[in-house]
Amino acid sequence: MANHKNISTDLVSKISDTEGRHSLFEDASRKLTVQVCRVFLDKEGNIAPARFQASNLTLPAKNQERTEKAFPLTVARHKNVILEGRPANGQPGITGKRVAVLFSGGPAAGGHNVLAGLKAGLGKHNTLLGIKRGPKGLIQGDVFEVSGRAAQNFLNTGGFDFLGTDRTKIKSQQQFENVKETVLNNRIDGLVVVGGDDSNTNAAFIAEYLEKEGVPCSVVGIPKTIDGDMAVGKFLPISFGYDTATKVYAELVGNLTQDAASAVKYYHFVKLMGRTASKITLEVALQTKPAVTLISEEIAEKDMSIDQIVDYIVHVMIHRRLNGINHGVILIPEGLIEFIPEMKKLISELNRVLAEYETDIKDLPTLKNKQEFIYPLLSPQSAQLMASLPEEIEEMLVLDRDDHGNVKVSQIETEKLLIEKIRYKMSEVKRHTGKYFGEGEGKIPATPEQIERYKSETLSIQSHFLGYEGRSARPTAFDASFTFNLGLTAASLVLEGKTGYMAVVTEFEKGGRVLALPLSGLITTEMRKGKEEQVIEKSLVATSSPSFQVFAKCRDKWANEDLFSSPGPIQHWGPASRQMPMLVALDQSYGDYRVFNLGEEKQIDLLEMEE
Amino acid sequence: MANHKNISTDLVSKISDTEGRHSLFEDASRKLTVQVCRVFLDKEGNIAPARFQASNLTLPAKNQERTEKAFPLTVARHKNVILEGRPANGQPGITGKRVAVLFSGGPAAGGHNVLAGLKAGLGKHNTLLGIKRGPKGLIQGDVFEVSGRAAQNFLNTGGFDFLGTDRTKIKSQQQFENVKETVLNNRIDGLVVVGGDDSNTNAAFIAEYLEKEGVPCSVVGIPKTIDGDMAVGKFLPISFGYDTATKVYAELVGNLTQDAASAVKYYHFVKLMGRTASKITLEVALQTKPAVTLISEEIAEKDMSIDQIVDYIVHVMIHRRLNGINHGVILIPEGLIEFIPEMKKLISELNRVLAEYETDIKDLPTLKNKQEFIYPLLSPQSAQLMASLPEEIEEMLVLDRDDHGNVKVSQIETEKLLIEKIRYKMSEVKRHTGKYFGEGEGKIPATPEQIERYKSETLSIQSHFLGYEGRSARPTAFDASFTFNLGLTAASLVLEGKTGYMAVVTEFEKGGRVLALPLSGLITTEMRKGKEEQVIEKSLVATSSPSFQVFAKCRDKWANEDLFSSPGPIQHWGPASRQMPMLVALDQSYGDYRVFNLGEEKQIDLLEMEE
């Protein structure tokens, strides 16, 4: 091929040079600065771990009694007191410690900068270890040393691919013993768990267990999840990864709003990742101003039925079409179905019936037979609801079940359910315009020409799911700086032997405030699958929050006019590169979302960290 | 809400200020410079239309005789000669002309900069008119004047929403007469058609028609399509919109390669928009280095069957898993199915049978009955292939047909077909490792531990379709400059009364060369649905091209190792903001893809253009 007369070998080598994470963009963005909170800078401006001391802030658990029972040693030690980081001010550095880090759960942008922050915080006289494939690697003892060179190479890059990740939950006695073995075999003084609510709950249990076993290893959690459902009021405005994921989705939704107005014929239905909480959806809505945005938490609060949701969307579509707008974007949060009270009821009844009559149902040959058997066993409302669902959804409910025999709620394609019902309703309105338009009660005022034009338009729907493409993007400047400081915080905590804390950074608008929250203070008691469990409470959208209130005030305007805006692809250079989530700025009462401040801009050199 | 104690009213107004296309990014990117080719700059560096003269280059039609018959007046006038733009050098400007522009077909990034270039080229002594909703608006006479202020506001923004677009083909005598009426009623001296191959063919016919009718209106086409299938060797390296769309897709595919390596469990199957040609897929592969990339043109050339394609992918997956890599990204071009010879044959046989026995087939009650009826009427190979397809695909082939009774090829979910067959094959390999691994002919060498580890891994697939999110993005710096110059080229041509040309810009690496290609020279004769038609030939991937050759040389390495790279989100500031497509740089024998040169960087002020 080198002999091909038209190929510039110089160009070919420029292209092969990009292999293995070395695109022009990747190489340039490795060199970008990150902001470092001042508590981590010594007088010469060099990075040094902070020292933690008790603040006057406390974080009592929701159910203090149960928590004390589950975490007696941890609670006795920290007494619900939040620690605050202070500059070391020339105190001699701690040396000779070995600190291991793992990623747990789905990827989120910034994980590699947590590692870089840890490496920078530990400095050259301590050792950073990486654990491969998350909790599974912790159990199996899959541990290696992270060099400064490797950490530098992954600085500012996306994904969790340096270590990999895994979703194993450490629950059994055997698993806990394996963890202890890994800690002892590798002489680990500190364990940093980068994960979401379940992983941080796990970290709390590991901290308690190791203390009980007399193993001197501090355990610190780091709040990661794109979903944004790990947040603790003023102490932790948001978890890392949320800013990047919402900005990737907002770029694409922004492009789709623009596409809808350009092709002037499509409604784009976009389902957005984010599991239970609608926080991703709310941020994307604030960024892009789509025609309709569903927020699960509000739907649950208002006890809305599927038909009411459909009516709301159809109502918006009708009014837009009368105003000459026959296109738009509709945002649907992934977790919606579990928030619709009537669906929740149907699913719980189905789970009961399917468990009780498992063999009878299995023996029935056709779906229709199974339906005939099941319907009379449901409440009349649930039977009626089930019969009104599209056939493929009904089939899923009856036939697809998880290992516990339960309906696979997360697999239900909510957007298809809504789309099918909306198509039907819209075609009915078109066929019976006399019934819906004109004068008289409950009718929509419209001139004969408007009605004629209305009838000439058709409904074209495209559906989309945005999820995986937002988890492993290169972190935004905000997430890159936020996570670097989380790494520095965790390094400082484990060097001082603090255990059972979550490293957090807050006050994003004025240089960053570095705290350690007692993990047990975040834990509450919940019923999961009929069993009481200690878990970290998910932070959902509160309809009383400023972010929801601003959205709620604007949405009718966004529904009636085409006021979309396109926040564009994430910029890493230039005037738009220093934004934070609008939701965070609103809910934290900051003055601006267009710029964050997490300290001094620093060029990071981890090669220095090599002994 | 203003009374909500926690809401900063200042912040709320900063957020509402972004409504209606005024995000921080949109407002900042409106102010970005574009590059202007030197032929459009006068001695003071101000923008002025170029003057066109005959070059020594010609572009004879493929089938000159037929073309002359279809476009007698046009061919007689331009004699296949390509025109070249030269600086006006102080020649007096042309004034008093009225020029109309329309968008046709799917949106592509940069359309608004074509308008801005037209406005700048026409200057304050000519009038720019916009036609709403594409060819439909041209027929209906939906015309309005475009102010400098409006053009300035849309400068550098994505989408076609300023005018909207439409896919109407102007074919009937009545439609041509309506076009003439619109031209006469609005005293239009020049008509600029921004569109793909079909729209530019239409432009050629309109030019011929208006000349025949004695209407003095020049018609100029502008090459638009994200698919990249409008390209003419050295004269037109690529159409506009391709760079932006491929960069949006490459951002997302890059994120998915990173996500696959992070979650260490998924194969992401990504189907990419691009209709017939695989040019989008090829560029995205060069940018991201995925595990497998299918190129339709190669598959047709090698006469590969579906089973051979499946075997190739399974082969890659097996070798990766043996090397400890159980994840990756697979790229599939949208148009694949039509390039698989056996599928093409099946579809054409089906179209014949379904037409011939339409009523018999309709009368048969079940799918099974219909299959039993159809199978014996197909060739044995086609019957066998059809029987081997997943049930839902078979159902689609038999039941879903377009208005002409043909199979809806574009609706066939190729990726699902491949996924189903791959799952089956991979589970067979896992169940019979003895048959596939070990020593002996045709077996894959593997140690017992490798085989054990192989068996412990599972196959998880996520499928994606990327399309609409890339059409209306904010144009890349390249597309923004390219389109502005295309607008300037078209303005210059219509001011001089040149008709039946396509405005093009080439030599992207050395300041841009401005040409006008005779539209009829691009036209060839093709059989479409059994009828001979004059069409612009699509430019497909040539397996002899440098871009394909480089890909083909690298792909085994990309398959065996995890060498992906992530080109990142499109940057509009900073060191990665001046790239052009790798495919273009390779196929045009440029020295670099990392920087383009289309002339002088200029801040554009269209408010000056107001009289």
Silhouette of chain A: globular
Q: Would you give the CATH topology of the largest domain in chain A? A: Rossmann fold
CATH class bucket of the largest domain in chain A: Alpha Beta
Please tell me the overall pLDDT of chain A: 94
Structural class of chain A: alpha/beta
Number of domains of chain A: 3
Largest interface: A-B, 95 and 94 residues
DSSP strand content of chain A: 15-25%
Proper CATH architecture of the largest domain in chain A: 3-Layer(aba) Sandwich
Assembly context of the chains: homodimer
**Which regions of chain A contain 5 or more consecutive residues with pLDDT less than 50?**
none
Structure summary, number of beta strands of chain A: 17
Backbone CA Rg of chain A: 27 Å
The major sheet of chain A is characterized as:
9 strands, mixed
What is the overall number of helices of chain A? 24
Helix content of chain A: 40-55%
What would you note in describing this structure?
The structure is a homodimer of 611-residue chains. The first copy, chain A, is an alpha/beta fold and 611 residues long. Chain A has three domains: 32-241 and 475-539 and 573-602, Rossmann fold (3-Layer(aba) Sandwich); 243-339 and 413-470, Phosphofructokinase domain (Rossmann fold); 341-410, Phosphofructokinase, domain 3 (Arc Repressor Mutant, subunit A, Orthogonal Bundle), CATH 1.10.10. The first copy, chain A, contains 24 helices and 17 strands. In chain A, helix 10 (242-263) crosses helix 11, helix 11 crosses helix 23 (546-560) and helix 14 packs across helix 17 (380-388). The two termini of chain A are 45 Å apart.
